[in-house]
Amino acid sequence: MSTLTVQKEVEQTEMMTAPTLLKAEDINIYYGENHAVKNLNLAVHRNEILALIGPSGCGKSTFLRSINRMNDLIPSARVTGNMMYEEVNLLSDDVNVVALRKEIGMVFQKANPFPKSIYDNLTHGLRFHGVPKKQWKDIVEESLTKAALWDEVKDRLHDSALELSGGQQQRLCIARTLALKPEVILLDEPASALDPIATAKVEELMIELKKQYTVVVVTHNMQQASRVSDRTAFFYNGELIETNPTEKLFSNPDHKQTEAYISGRFG
Ligand SMILES: Nc1ncnc2c1ncn2[C@@H]1O[C@H](COP(=O)(O)OP(=O)(O)OP(=O)(O)O)[C@@H](O)[C@H]1O
User: Fold this and answer.
1) How far is CA 251 from CA 37, 175, 226, 255, in A?
2) Which tens digit of pLDDT belongs to each residue from 81-137?
3) I want to staple 90 with a disulfide (CB 3.0 to 4.6 A). Which of 44, 51, 83, 203 is the partner?
4) Which CATH architecture has domain 12-262?
5) Which of left, alpha, beta for 148 (phi over 0: left; psi -120 to 50: alpha)?
6) Cβ(76) to ligand 1 under 6 A?
7) Domain boundaries, the chain
8) How far is CA 66 from the centre of its chain?
């Protein structure tokens, strides 16, 4: 954690026992006058898959991006509140944002491999973060294996990543994130551009990743949320309406709005 902040010290024992890894406290996010996320309080538990669902424009991606400060890149965006990651408020000025995005990695809706070889896609971040070159080969194999892509690409590591299929490219992007050894992986509709077979692979991968990482995934696909996630948070109109174990949220939600959404009555 010392890489994330120059001020705060983390109590290791608490870290190991606390089920809550990340806690959004009174998060408000604005784009200029548009109040996109309103008074949001949400805990993310260690080693869970938390799905964020809700109608288009309800603030899911905006919230997801605030976790690793991707909204900093949007000039009109303003975030208030605390994003507590163990003992550190990720929104504070003294957080090292580069280290933060290594620890809390993100994969986007549209696979975005660099126009380089498969190998170079993975080593790009390692070079940037100063990982010694002699470790690269092992990290490349390990990350591609974890992303369930190794067998498909091991004989073509020096081919262009752009020659991979869409589903393979998305798993490459996940591998690229894993290469940096994150704690948390943020996935923004990672399978929405994929066919059912590639989607199933990404879903299997998510469940596999949970053993080692904490995953927060935005999805429009309610079947996907119910297949992969442990808990689901339902957003509506910038507000978090409810968070519950996935099975409960889809069978017996606490709120009428959730019920209406999951039964297809709006959104
Ligand atoms: N880069 C941006 N600049 C300005 N406004 C934005 C930006 N991104 C999102 N918004 C606005 O913030 C609100 C929430 O959008 P967001 O993309 O977070 O919703 P979402 O629930 O993820 O939607 P979708 O499911 O369609 O991706 C919307 O009103 C949207 O227009």
Assistant:
1) 26, 34, 10, 12
2) 999 998 999 999 999 999 999 999 999 888 899 999 999 999 999 999 999 999 999
3) 83
4) 3-Layer(aba) Sandwich (3.40)
5) left
6) yes
7) 12-262
8) 11
34 Cβ inside 6 Å of ligand 1: yes
> Does ligand 1 come within 6 angstroms of the Cβ of 30?
no
Q: Hey, how many other C-beta atoms are within 10 angstroms of the C-beta on 107?
A: 24
Q: Which residue has the tokens 């008074």?
A: 39
Q: Which two tokens stand for residue 150?
A: 């190794």
The pLDDT tens digits of the residues spanning 137-175 come to 999 999 999 888 999 999 999 999 999 998 899 999 999
- Interface ipTM > 0.85: yes
CB atoms within 10 A of CB 154: 13
In sequence order, the β-bridge partners of residue 247 are none
Pocket test for ligand 1, best of 31, 110, 220 (most atoms within 8 A of CB): 31
Q: Which atom of ligand 1 is nearest to the CA of 235?
A: 21
